[in-house]
Q: What sequence folds into this?
């Protein structure tokens, strides 16, 4: 089991670690700041720094089969170090921080659009949610205005935990129809933006909505009879 440093501190950019296993999929560390692909958020990239000072590029991070198993995928052609090698795991912080800002923005979007969420995805400069809603009910200007009001209000963002039984007793907390929260460990990661949003989420987020910065609604389009996609991104990316 890997110690998930990002779970307790999403702002940790690096950590000391040790390689504990190597196989064809990649490396396992005893602890990591790298978030693995999940919940629509991409896996982190970055570098592993060896005691010699040599750096190995981590091209992607994915989940293993076991609970809390994180696989660090090296760039193609990179020979992996042997198990037991100490390393410093260092994030591509600019990319990760963009994911944190956009992931938190999607929580606000799910509060602005009152409809079940059928899917979503995050990139470094934009993100989207799909909603089970009629197209006529989605007003681009209203959504954009309300999103930026919530961002500017400076709401605190508070990760925490909820017990499996408590979650089962409050099924409305689960907004995403396409992905069920992981169960079986007795508790589920939850994200609270008090007065705005509360739902299970294992991703990484900013501490305050102001960190998101101004956003725009790039487009709203139909993805089928039930799915309507709202794509948002940073205002600086709209030029």
A:
């Amino acid at each position: 089991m890997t110690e998930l440093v990002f779970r307790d501190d999403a702002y940790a950019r690096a950590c000391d670690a040790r390689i504990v296993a190597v196989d064809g999929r990649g490396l396992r560390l005893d602890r990591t700041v790298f978030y693995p692909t999940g919940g629509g958020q991409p896996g982190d990239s970055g570098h592993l720094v060896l005691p010699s000072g040599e750096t190995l590029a981590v091209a992607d991070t994915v989940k293993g089969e076991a609970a809390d198993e994180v696989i660090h995928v090296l760039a193609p052609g990179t020979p992996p170090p042997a198990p037991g090698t100490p390393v410093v795991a260092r994030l591509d912080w600019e990319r990760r921080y963009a994911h944190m800002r956009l992931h938190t923005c999607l929580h606000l979007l799910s509060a602005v659009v009152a409809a079940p969420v059928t899917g979503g995805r995050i990139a470094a400069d934009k993100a989207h949610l799909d909603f089970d809603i009629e197209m006529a009910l989605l007003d681009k200007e209203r959504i954009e205005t309300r999103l930026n009001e919530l961002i500017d209000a400076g709401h605190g963002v508070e990760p925490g935990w909820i017990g499996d039984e408590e979650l089962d007793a409050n099924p409305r907390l689960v907004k995403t129809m396409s992905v069920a929260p992981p169960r079986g460990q007795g508790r589920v990661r939850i994200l609270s933006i008090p007065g705005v949003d509360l739902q299970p989420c294992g991703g990484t987020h900013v501490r305050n909505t102001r960190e998101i910065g101004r956003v725009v609604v790039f487009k709203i389009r139909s993805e089928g009879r039930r799915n309507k996609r709202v794509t948002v991104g940073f205002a600086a990316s709209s030029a």
In short: The helical segments are 5-8, 93-112, 140-152, 164-169.
